[in-house]
Amino acid sequence: MAIDYHNLRNWKFEDRVDRYTARDCMIYALGLGYGGDPADDDELRYVHEEGTAVVPTFLATLGAPNGWAADPATGIDWVKILHGEHRMTFHAPLAAAGAVRSQTRVTRVVDKGAGKGALVVTVRDISDAGSGRPLATVEHVSFCRADGGFGQGDEPPQALPPVPDREPDCAVLLPTLAQQALLYRLNGDLNPVHALPHMARAAGFDRPILHGLCTYGMAARALLRACAPAGTQRLAGISARFSAPVFPGETLRAEIWRDGAHLQFRVLAHERNTVVLSNGVAGLAQ
């Protein structure tokens, strides 16, 4: 079954309300490697119940309409779908406990051509469930490798820029744990390719891989450490393209270029010197 542009473009999602606690925020932070240095007070605040700070990308784990692309009515060959890009804009700081409302819509269906795949872009608006105050906008770009050639589509989203052609202003090394994917999956992404060796091999990997959104969250951790220590500023947004998988146990190297509140970055698997997140853009706010 091929993609029906009009059907997919007008796909209906039910609103979701998700409740979360400081414990959920701490589990997320632990899944990103926070607390690796028990004497680091700046990182300890993300993994302790007293005045818990929240990593803003925690909102990536709430409200996503998981599994919707597997519905046969979408026309998507979901087995071959890849998470291409992830873009988040933060409108307000997140409290350490509460409830959020998520409203998702399809904003673009892009035909790259027969044999070249398609892009499906969803936007998720997240707000405080009680007050309605906007908290974040999440743009999820899916690359549907087997679904091009349906003949009609939208313009692609504006391309994320490449990093500057010069040495980065700073770099942050972040180790990952051998069991980090098993920790991160406690946030709700139970895809077996991140946990079971035989499922990873079936997907073409010799061992389980780290969740892409874990790498993305670790990029946010690196940006906060390098550019907003001790909560002097907060992230206003972060966007990046997923370029290659990460294997738990590898070290990540976040390279950062800074121009005031405007940040560009990329993340590499340090030991392999392989770019795993590219075209990274972020911003800081007071």
UniProtKB/TrEMBL annotation:
Question: Could you tell me which InterPro entries the record lists for this protein?
Answer: HotDog_dom_sf (IPR029069), MaoC-like_dom (IPR002539), MFE-2_N (IPR054357)
Q: Where does the record place the Peroxisomal multifunctional enzyme type 2-like N-terminal domain?
A: 20-145
Q: Where in this chain does the record put each MaoC-like domain? A: 164-271
Which N-terminal residues, if any, form the signal peptide? none
| Short name of one Pfam family | MFE-2_hydrat-2_N
Name of this protein: MaoC/PaaZ C-terminal domain-containing protein
Q: Which organism is it from?
A: Achromobacter veterisilvae
Source species taxonomy: Bacteria, Pseudomonadati, Pseudomonadota, Betaproteobacteria, Burkholderiales
